[in-house]
Amino acid sequence: MKLVRFNEINENEYLEYILEWEKANETIIPGASDRKGRSFIEMIEKWKANESRHMYQEGKVPSTLYFLTENDRTIIGSLDFRYELNEQLLVHGGDIGYGVRPTRRREGNCSLMLKKFIEMNKDKNIGRVLLTCDESNIGSIKTIEKCKGILENTIEINGKRVRRYWIGIE
Fold first, then answer.
1. Helix (H), strand (E), coil (C) string for the chain
2. Which of 80, 112, 133, 151 has the fewest Cβ atoms nearer than 10 Å?
3. Which domain holds residue 89?
4. Residue 79's CATH number
């Protein structure tokens, strides 16, 4: 499996991936991969814009979207890396959001995707990244802890308990 930047996938691969999420009627995670009625060309333009300083004008931070693909180029999941934390992301959201298509969960794909991201960024002086998840999300807790996440604290946001973890990238 490979972790590739958004510009390395094609329309058919993306549509197969996103249609599975939509048919499952689930919230698409990370939200950056959700097309929200856009065409594939519009999505590519959106993902390019997400990497720019223009995001600050929207109250967001620049980010890059990656896709975990199999050898046959089937998209298994996606990971959105935010280059920095604003006040909101420091509390909930963190540097990285990730998700796996419904039919490929519980296979270790989130852990694999996160490990591949860490490996490919070891020499980029990132230092550490923040990951957050709801306390009820056992799968995400296991993924983060499997990837050497260190729990900083658990906080309450709108009645939900959120765990905040740091992972070193060295």
1. CEEEEHHHCCHHHHHHHHHHHHHHCCCCCCHHHCCCCCCHHHHHHHHHHHCCHHHHHHCCCCEEEEEEECCCCCEEEEEEEECCCCHHHHHCCCCEEEEECHHHCCCCHHHHHHHHHHHHCCCCCCEEEEEEEECCCHHHHHHHHHCCCEEEEEEEECCEEEEEEEEEEC
2. 151
3. 2-169
4. 3.40.630.30
pLDDT digits over 106-154, tens only?
A: 999 999 999 999 999 998 888 999 999 999 999 999 999 999 999 999 9
Q: What is the pTM of this model?
A: 0.94
Q: How many domains, the chain?
A: 1
